[in-house]
Amino acid sequence: MPIEIKCDKCQASLRAPDSTAGKRIKCPRCSNILLVESIDESPEEDKENASHGAIVVPAERQATSHRPARTQKSKSDDRQSLQSTYIVAGNSRREIKLLAIGLVFTVILLGVATTGYMLGRSLPDSDKAIVSNDDVEESTTVQPTEIRIENVPAPQNTPTANSGKTPENSVVTTEPPGNSNKADTVEPVQPPTSVQPAASTVSVQSPVTFEPLLLDEPATSFTMSEDGRFVIMSHQTAGLISIYDVMADKVTHVIHTDSPRALLSRGDQLFVGNFGEGKISVFSASNAWNLQNEVQVTKPNIVFMSAACQQNFAGEILVTCHGEGGQASYQDSTIFLVDVQRDRCKEVSRQAMASVSFDGKTALTQSSFNLSPSGGLRVYSYDEFVAGDPEPIFQGGIQQTPFVYQSYSGSYWLSENMVFGGAPIALVHEKLGQIVIPDTMQKLIYVMDEEVISARHLNSNLTEIAEGPRRIAVPPEQLKPSSRLFHQLYRRRDYILDHPVAATHGNLLTLCMLDQTNGAVLRARTPAFLEPAKNDPVADAPAISSQRTSDSTPPGVVPTPATVNSAESGIADILRGWPTLIAAGREFRHQFPVQKGKLDVQLVDGPPGMKISADGVVTWLPANKDTGSHEFKLRFERSAGPFFERPRVEVVSEELAKSVGGDLTKVNQFESFDLDTDHYAIASGLDPKSLLLLQGKTLRILEPNGISIERTIELPQRYHDIEERQDVYVAVSSKPAILDIIDKKSLKILKHIDLVFPDFKVLDVTDLAIHPDSATSYVCVKNSIELPRYTVLVVDEQSGLAQAPGIIGKWAEVASDGQTLYTGYSDIYKKGMNFHINPGWRLIETPEYGNVDMLLAWNMIGTKPTVEKIVRKAGGNGSGIRLSPDGSRIIYLSHVGTPMHSNNLVGFATTDFESSEIHYATKDRASTKEATFHPTLPWVAMPGEGSITVFARETGDLIENRLLATLGGLGTDAIERLFFSPDGQSIVLLRSGGESGRYLQRIPLILSESEIAISATRPNHQPPLKLKPQTVSATELHSLQATATRVAMTPLEIGRDFTNSVVVVRTARSAGSGFVVGDNGYVLTCAHVVSDGNELTVAYNGTDTQNDFI
Amino acid sequence: MTLYSETAQVVRIDHDRDIALLKFTPKKRLKSVRLCGGNLMESGEPVTVIGNPGAGDSILSHTMTSGIVSNPERDLDGQSYIQLSAAVNPGNSGGPLFDQYGNVAGLVALKANIEGAGFAVPSETLREFLNTAVGGQ
Predict the structure, then answer these.
(1) Which positions ≥6 away from A1104 have C-beta within 8 Å?
(2) A736-760 pLDDT, tens per residue?
(3) Are strands A599-605 and A588-591 parallel, antiparallel or unpaired?
(4) Preceding omega of A424 cis (within 30 degrees of 0)
(5) Does the CB of A938 have a partner CB in chain B at under 8 Å?
(6) ipTM higher than 0.90?
(7) Are A14 and A136 in contact (CB under 8 A)?
């Protein structure tokens, strides 16, 4: 039975011969190295697999040995192999010369081998041979020798790292300094004579040998100093700390301290957490490891300490204390914030463990440990976490939560054999060998399994260093079946709070790990893994703009090598050289390898204008209108009968081809900017050519291109949302609910408005909008657990007065004249209960919920807002509202679209919700959860899966081929938000992928010259109305001052006196009367006369005579 | 007769009581009306209404009608109105209701669906509203 495996890189499903079980094969599609999982076999077979190198040898390549697959191996062979490994482990090193047959790099693995158990079963029939001969590693070994070869093909662009190195060099570099054991001198081993053909000699590394450090007491925990110089081990029962100097290769210092459990090294300082007395002792490395300071923690049992690293460390440590007993980790655990300098200790959390990110910005907690189904990871902003009552940025993780830690700045977190990363923090690589060991000196991790260790860059792909894996050897006691080193060390039913470490000093790599069963620290010294220059284009980008290339294969562009179901040679190559991308406006030519009479080709179906000549030359001049993916059908005629091929090609627009200078390999390289994991809020700046991007305390002002950072501002505290005014920022925080007015120059909080009322508790802040002219903010809050749960607070920024005038809404947008507030309200209500009886005759009750999704327009003139317009079923499970910059259209975003469940969206006219709506057909094209309006062009865009759909805002027509990207060229990372850049010339995506973290990405638009001209204009921001007087002076209202008279007047007299006091009040739609109550233009009228809004005029008689009334 | 037209803004509005205070900048000083004192009107008291029933065109079409107070305290939707017998048309909305001394007794707000019945917001309410505008509350 072939073994089904899936390539974790290209997702190809592969079938590997079962002889490859437990071994490495190369993915035929993407050359990724895959480990084929072991299948359940007899114990003997298991041992074979376990004790020998991972080699896959196809039977066909066994040129001199036509043995049947998998001969049985004797018990003695088995023992011998173990013994042989033991010899290796016992410090013997051998240098082996070997022939490299066109191999870039070769690692020799020692072991007793017979060709028999190197043989895989014969490969399946060729039509099923997905793992083909070229894809498995080769061996030329024919004799039962001690040599096994593992050839891990290196990337083609990799320099031959070690090719120039002589065996002597290798010996020198392999030999650890300070190791004086002469008996261990490495002896070169003669290559087997039968190996051929002869090739240049390649030196190989000796196995990476782990040996226990000589310690007087068993080690209970260990860590490495930040400079990688010292390995610090605690011996809890003996009350000792040993300091092992990596360079000197010996224990140089021993410190006496009571019951040391947790260790933390920062800079020169070593913090030792005591178990039993709640004491942290601080030692100084530069001062001969003398005790410098002691800090007391409120709880006695310190089990773990964590703090920001290197320059980010400011003396604050998160200390985890557990009570006594096996259940303490989830029943009695406390996290303290300890300030070492000031000797302060404060309880911050009751979770099972907390660790701090490298940069000190985030704290990660675990609610429990290993094997607990409730285990979970939470990530908080560090500031919020230590302040108490934090809101997790991320919550999730995996059930069997291991110890997760961060060893580098960036978005990656490591665990036993897993890598977490990205935003939100997600498990991105699991089952990486058995153990992951971070290098403290460089951004590398070492991935180790039972046989080999390899070095990988800590980036989204975990790119392996070209050198490939090295074989490892461990002491015999760790090889025993009872050993916990591999399978059990990190999977035991207790938790451990340290991790293996490594450090590279020059050419020396030191690796250390703790075998808790034996209390042994295993140390290996080996030459540093060579890092070929620049093999890592997608390395973790620093927080500056960088190019990010989408590495996903566009779905529309099928890889050229087509599988041909024919055994006839040459057919498989018939499409060789067929391009995936061609440029519009340039003639495309392709020659098929045909031979007249023997192999002819005809074009069965193709785009208009495509021709094929008798000698197999395809020509086509695609026009810009042909932009997109095309499939052709070709009929090949040969003696054995015809066959058909359907190659595809994507025509890219002239503009796109031009933008990359005609080099189509350069398409889809987009400018990007890495964001933090934190919450984000995006708001347009006061200058419509800028954008605000808020993440916690950090406010970034984006340039008109929507991705470059004009300025980065550190705000006084964390905020949830922000808006910009002339001189101040208006920022709202969620917990506690506060609206701050922040001076833009000094960044000081000018006004601190508590959003607190009697009988009104703000549970959460969902949105912030500001009045364009008057100093009024609208804060959408969740304030109740019963419907309606979302309400809008109207906050007077000057007086600090906040009111809840009965506006419901989860999101708010203010019309540019400030007279209308649009809100979206989304909520769920329990509409009933379902009852089921399960097979065990138990009654199950499941509540049934309904959605409330409304779009509302509120008339904000006057004291009490009133609903002017409403869409009652605006969608389902809403996600926001979007108002076009000119204020003419508004969209309600939700999971099911508008109308409900249509998966389409509607642009409502803000003047009238009931008619003149425009439908945007997003169904099957794009999401209904997010949309953005162009600042000046009448466009609206929605994200799809790796695509963006643009519609004409006022017609709903599709606007196609406007992105400078190929089909599918945007890759597959999720698009959380999108917005047009303020200059209108790009669309900016806020994306997140499990591996890549969260980032902004700018996709340029293809615009005509007139469109560029429109984009260059300022958005139609209406000139702000004069600040409306909120209060009137009593002296201005003369009618209030005038005393009523008691002198009778005839109607004629009344008319003569007061006709000119009566005015016409006119709006766009209606007119009414009014009368003067203040000589300087104050008029009373009816609210219903003016309530339909804008363009209010008053007409009055300006004649001085008062006799005009007839 | 010289007509002027100016843009105005809403200073304060009260939808429940159907009153709005507008502000515009006049080219000349206008004449403010006198508001009634606290005295309740009596049924049968003569009243005068000035308004612009022909609303829509730009010419001030001042129209005067007179009648009597039908009910000084008519309760409609929880609000107290003066019910009057003077002919009231849609364009009268917002216009003044004068008592027999030339004081403004109310703000014409509603017309009933029966002939000869209009309703005005009493001056007391207007005074209260203006005082609120002054206080800013």
Answers:
(1) B28
(2) 889 999 999 999 999 899 887 777 8
(3) unpaired
(4) yes
(5) no
(6) yes
(7) no
